Amino acid sequence: MSRRPTLLYSDFNVGRSADVRVVGGEGVHFILDDGRRVIDGSDTGAALGHAHPDIVAAIHAAASAPTVNDGWYYGDRDDAVAELAAAGFADNPDLIGAVRFCMSGSEANDLAMSLCQALTGRQALVTRERAYHGGSGLAREVTVQPHWHGGLSAAHGGCRPVPRGNPVRQIPMPQGARILGGRPDMPPGELTATAVAALRDAACVIIDYSQGGIYHDADYQNAVAAAAAETGALWIADEVVTGFGRTGVWFAFQQADARPDIITLGKPLAGGASPAGAVVLSQRIADQLDDQRWQTFSTFRGHPIMIAGLRAHLRVQQRDGLAQHARELDGVFAKTLTEIADRHPSVARIDGRGTHWTIELQGPDWRDWYADVPEAPVAARVAAAALEAGAVIGTSGEQTSLFLAPPLIIEEEEVLALLEALDAGLDVADAELAAG
After folding, report:
1. Segment 165-211, tens digit of pLDDT
2. CA distance 156 to 245
3. pLDDT category of residue 371 using cuts at 50, 70 and 90
4. Gap between the Cα atoms of 40 and 98, Å rounded
5. Burial class (CB in 10 A: 0-12, 13-18, 19+), 396
6. What's the pTM value of the predicted model, to 2 decimals?
7. Can you tell me whether residue 124 is helix, strand or coil?
């Protein structure tokens, strides 16, 4: 009998190790093969949840559209850019001078950084500590979380990361936390000076707003932007996770004064209907391309189904006020997570914004995280217990870190049910901490 081929997957959550099979989804719930309906609290790509009627209708309508590659004119793409500008950039029209659609956030980050290298003639790339920007190309090179190095890890020791081909420098990450475990940040002036030293001959600095459980405040963003302006490096705001209302505003960079040269989008861009990404160039950067052609091409960028999902997503975001909804739920998360922190000694740090929150447990420092561990780490065991209590909580392969990112359509009652499942799961970590 021939052996069935193996599917290679990213085993970063409880689903695979617990042999859980998702067979459907509706609203904020996954439907499992044993009939259970569990809250999906871990899916940053499903901003509108699962099987949203507006998304389903849009995709059905687009199924008969032609397959039009990136090199051909397709009017719906132009319309999608105009709608994106009107919805998300009405207050900052100069921030959307041009858009190139992509297949993913990783590709968007890769393309954005390569464009910066071309425009500046520089090679070095700068990011912050604990950053994640994707798993391919230049995006992988600036992913400095050690467990996502893109190479190989063995369950009983040893890892073989993929070598980097570009100089990559790291600036200090923010240290604050809203609920628990925060430390004083580097003063803005000192941070600017440190960033200037890193950016002197760099093509760009790319910062995200949630990866690794790190959330930036206005002072941090403005300090990095000042350093980029002083050195001639370009500033990319990676909004792959935080774009489209996740933190209570359309884009996380809007919570500070400084404005980026380039914005990258992904994950929820098409409402979860298809893989999607985009590079948004400010008018200043777009003007530099007036007499030049950006030499990149892809067969499926801006596919009609992706464009249909994007346009439907934008309509729902505006109609239902989802960024405002996330801002209102911020208080529910903050209050309940504060109570949870008080009950669980295993919790070391909690931070977040809107509907994206990170809970870090007592354990090894993140710099020592690798995928080559012989048994499921404590974060995965907490997630498994939370699943039994009715909710999927994310780990992203991190040994002591959990994150919450439910669909933006989640209601307060469902938020409380999600946090109740987290509360139950943390009992596992408390027991292990007590046992030594």
Report:
1. 899 999 999 999 999 999 998 999 999 999 999 999 999 999 999 99
2. 41
3. low
4. 34
5. buried
6. 0.95
7. strand
Largest Cα separation within the chain, whole Å, is 68
Tokens of 380: 């995965």
Q: Name the strand (E) or helix (H) holding 384.
A: helix 378-388
Q: C-alpha dihedral over 262, 162, 216, 346, to 10 degrees?
A: 160
CA 237 to chain centre: 12
In the chain, % of residues over pLDDT 70 = 94
- Look at residue 217 and tell me whether its pLDDT is greater than 80: yes
Per-residue model confidence (pLDDT) at position 216: 93
- The domains found in the chain, sorted by start residue, are 14-35+321-435 (3.90.1150.10), 55-320 (3.40.640.10)
What is the sign of the dihedral through the CA atoms of 177, 210, 13 and 331? positive
pLDDT at residue 401 in the model: 93
Q: Burial-class residue 67 by CB neighbours within 10 Å (0-12, 13-18, 19+).
A: exposed
The CB density around residue 434, as the number of other CB atoms within 10 Å, is 9
* pLDDT reported for residue 124: 98
Q: Is residue 277 classed exposed, middle or buried when 0-12, 13-18 and 19+ CB atoms within 10 A define those classes? A: buried
Terminal CA-CA length for the chain: 48
Distance CA(240)–CA(107), nearest Å, equals 11
Q: How many CA atoms lie within 13 A of 214 on its CB side?
A: 21
pLDDT tens column, 105-130: 999 999 999 999 999 999 999 999 99
Average pLDDT, the chain: 92
112-124 burial: b if 16+ Cβ within 10 Å, else e: bbbbbbebbebeb
Position 189, amino acid: G
Can you tell me the mean pLDDT for 424-428? 98
Range 56-63 average pLDDT: 96
Helix, strand, or coil (residue 67) = coil
Environment class of residue 424 by beta-carbon count within 10 Å: exposed (0-12), middle (13-18) or buried (19+)?
Answer: middle
β-bridge mates for residue 75, sequence order: none
Stretch (H or E) spanning 199: helix 188-199
